[in-house]
């Protein structure tokens, strides 16, 4: 891949500013040697400390082995600047396709445009990239529908109205924006008796959700919420811990999550948690990788694929894609 000296300095400068000078230099050196060890497919996850993306990586590696393709995995550690630097370094190294779960939907638009100008195909997964000059094909679940499914459950479970707490995931990500939109739309459709009494981010982290929920329950102890909607399951685990510690039973405050991770499925089976939205991370990343390989082998342009989310409860637990992992 041809890069100007200015571009090369820009990548090194950005990487150095993030403490990545050695890694970036190594990647650039690999390119100078002809890219003998370069991966044609690079996958950048926004945060591999999140259970959802750990599972997605495992599915990715399994699919890569089946397809016989070498894949390089990068962890942005929920840092947009690091993710941009990682992707630019990957392009210099010789990547032909980049699959990315962006930390911020808008922050990566310019980076996606630059990759496209260099002939590197970009596919977003789980979270989309907004604002790019050339639309980035996206493989993921319909997050608005997923958020609406959570709200629909509340409306049906509480026909006379409900007080709802919403704990959001990563600010700026399309998954958070769209899930919040779905929740708001679904509750609004139920009528004015359905009120969001608190909405706060916990950045997809269990410990932060624990703290957020503790603070909410302390401030509302005499009039607790009927339901807590957590926009990922790791946060739901923290919320459940806070609910128990505050002395409330699962029947008093209902907790819903998103992602249908095995731990959440076990809580649903035990009756501690009422539901979680299934968005099939394995199908998402496997579909994206197959499209990446097709692009490299045949030149076929990647296309957007929208998956329909399913609200998993005790009644349809067997429909969860990761049910076999439940302990």
* Radius of gyration from CA coordinates: 21 Å
Q: For the largest beta sheet, what order do the strands appear in spatially?
A: 2-1-3-4-5-11
- Tell me the CATH topology of the largest domain: Rossmann fold
Q: Which range does the strand content fall in?
A: 15-25%
Biggest sheet details: 6 strands, parallel
Structural class: alpha/beta
Description:
It contains eleven helices and twelve strands. It has two domains: 5-136, Rossmann fold; 143-280 and 313-325, Rossmann fold (3-Layer(aba) Sandwich), CATH 3.40.50. It is elongated, with a radius of gyration of 21 Å. The protein is α/β, with parallel strands linked by helices and 327 residues long. The strands form two sheets. The chain has a six-stranded parallel sheet with strand order 2-1-3-4-5-11, with helices on both faces. Strand 9, helix 10 (262-270) and strand 10 (275-278) form a beta-alpha-beta unit. 46% of the residues lie in helices and 17% in strands.
Compact summary:
The protein has 327 residues and is α/β, with parallel strands linked by helices. The protein has eleven helices and twelve strands. Helices cover 46% and strands 17% of the residues.
Jot down its keywords.
Rossmann fold, alpha/beta, 6-stranded parallel beta sheet, disordered N terminus, 6-stranded mixed beta sheet, 12 strands, 327 residues
């Amino acid at each position: 891949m041809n890069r100007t000296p200015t571009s090369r300095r820009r990548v090194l400068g950005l990487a150095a500013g993030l403490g990545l000078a050695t890694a970036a230099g190594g990647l650039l050196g690999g390119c100078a040697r002809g890219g003998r060890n370069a991966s044609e497919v690079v996958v950048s996850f926004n945060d591999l400390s999140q259970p959802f993306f750990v599972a997605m990586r495992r599915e990715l590696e399994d699919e890569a082995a089946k397809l016989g393709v070498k894949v390089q995995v990068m962890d942005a550690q929920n840092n947009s600047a690091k993710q941009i630097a990682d992707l630019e370094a990957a392009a210099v190294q010789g990547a032909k396709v980049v699959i990315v779960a962006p930390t911020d939907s808008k922050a990566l638009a310019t980076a996606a445009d630059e990759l496209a100008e260099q002939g590197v195909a970009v596919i977003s997964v789980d979270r989309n990239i907004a604002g790019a000059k050339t639309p980035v094909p996206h493989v993921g679940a319909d997050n608005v529908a997923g958020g609406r499914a959570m709200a629909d459950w509340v409306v049906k479970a509480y026909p006379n109205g409900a007080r709802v707490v919403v704990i959001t995931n990563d600010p700026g990500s399309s998954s958070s924006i769209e899930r919040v939109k779905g929740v708001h739309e679904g509750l609004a459709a139920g009528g004015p008796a359905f009120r969001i009494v608190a909405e706060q981010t916990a950045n997809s982290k269990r410990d932060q959700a624990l703290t957020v929920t503790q603070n909410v329950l302390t401030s509302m102890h005499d009039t607790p919420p009927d339901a807590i909607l957590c926009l990922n399951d790791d946060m739901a685990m923290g919320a459940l811990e806070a609910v128990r510690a505050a002395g409330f039973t699962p029947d008093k405050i209902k907790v819903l999550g998103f992602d249908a991770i095995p731990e959440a499925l076990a809580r649903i089976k035990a009756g501690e948690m009422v539901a979680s939205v299934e968005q099939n991370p394995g199908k998402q990343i496997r579909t994206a990788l197959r499209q990446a390989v097709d692009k490299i082998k045949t030149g076929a342009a990647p296309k957007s694929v929208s998956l329909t989310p399913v609200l998993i409860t005790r009644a349809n637990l067997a429909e969860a894609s990761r049910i076999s992992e439940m302990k």
